């Protein structure tokens, strides 16, 4: 498929990279970019051989510096709601992809950028990454899920502080607050992301998909229903060749040869 504001490429077998590519505006998200992210998520979701998606920003200055302020400035209430929905749908499509989605964040990751990163399964940051939800500085609230995903990720009090004060977090602060999983030197970020993706390729493909589904579908359920969901998913694993292969390989002291079925 053709894209204007993003790049979607297979960088290694089974590993895909989505790059938000508007470096002159620090990869700000306008409606077209959001729609392209949505389309790209659907495209990757349809590829049977895709097993990990990495998400990043072009230009070395920003992952994404937010929703496009120039595009938003003159919006009416209805247009604002529509723009918000376009972003919500795009990020939800990414979040619900049946494969791990890892954000590689270098530089500014603000507003809609932070919301995009949070819609990924986890975040790897460079040591010069900067996180924040600065919407209050502009007289608005987050509109792409930030007020909902941030408290779920780092807890209500810390999320409230960031959302209400608009203050920025350094990469190390974001690490300490549990917003990012690891911090790497900027020149190593992509390699570290790739190494992590390659490691995932060695795991049982069905189990990787199913555990993501269990987390995604279970996290907003009450504990009884969430644990019941896990039992269903666990049981389902036993109908797969991968389970037989994984456990046989362990007992036979060899590496598993997974087929993804
Ligand atoms: N939108 C549009 N353009 C942007 C954005 C943005 N979010 N961020 C940066 N740019 C542009 C600048 O306008 C500038 O363009 P130009 O060269 O044409 O003037 C270029 O990128 C470089 O920016 P700066 O010159 O400002 O570079 P600095 O290094 O001085 O500063 C910053 C970098 C700190 C990232 C600064 O640009 C900044 O503060 N940007 C805005 C950050 C922000 O407030 N983000 C939140 C936006 S609101 C949001 O994301 C809400 C999401 C939900 C929307 C819901 C829909 C209704």
TrEMBL record:
InterPro entries: ClpP/crotonase-like_dom_sf, Enoyl-CoA_hydra/iso, Enoyl-CoA_hydra_C. Keywords: Lyase. One of its GO terms (biological process) is fatty acid beta-oxidation. Pfam families: ECH_1. GO terms for molecular function: hydro-lyase activity. Belongs to the enoyl-CoA hydratase/isomerase family. This is Enoyl-CoA hydratase/isomerase family protein. It comes from Sedimenticola thiotaurini. The lineage of its organism: Bacteria, Pseudomonadati, Pseudomonadota, Gammaproteobacteria, Chromatiales.
């Amino acid at each position: 498929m053709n894209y204007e504001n993003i790049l979607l490429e297979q960088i290694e077998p089974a590993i895909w990279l989505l790059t938000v590519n508007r470096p002159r505006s620090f990869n700000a998200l306008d409606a077209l970019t959001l729609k392209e992210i949505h389309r790209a998520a659907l495209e990757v979701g349809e590829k049977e051989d895709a097993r990990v998606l990495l998400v990043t920003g072009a230009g070395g200055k920003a992952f994404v510096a937010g929703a496009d302020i120039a595009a938003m400035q003159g919006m009416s209430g209805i247009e604002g709601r529509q723009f918000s929905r376009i972003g919500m749908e795009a990020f939800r499509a990414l979040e619900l992809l049946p494969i791990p989605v890892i954000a590689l964040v270098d530089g500014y990751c603000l507003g809609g950028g932070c919301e995009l990163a949070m819609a990924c399964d986890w975040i790897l940051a460079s040591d010069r990454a900067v996180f924040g939800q600065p919407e209050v500085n502009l007289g608005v609230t987050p509109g792409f899920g930030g007020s909902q995903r941030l408290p779920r990720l780092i807890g209500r009090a810390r999320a409230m502080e960031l959302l209400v004060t608009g203050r920025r977090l350094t990469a190390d602060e974001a690490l300490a607050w549990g917003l990012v999983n690891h911090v790497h030197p900027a020149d190593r970020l992509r390699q570290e992301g790739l190494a992590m993706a390659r490691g995932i390729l060695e795991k049982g493909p069905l189990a990787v998909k199913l555990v993501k589904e269990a987390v995604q579908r279970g996290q907003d359920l009450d504990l009884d229903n969430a644990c019941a969901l896990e039992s269903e998913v666990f049981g389902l694993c036993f109908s797969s060749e991968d389970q037989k292969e994984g456990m046989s390989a362990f007992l036979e002291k060899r590496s598993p040869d997974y087929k993804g079925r």
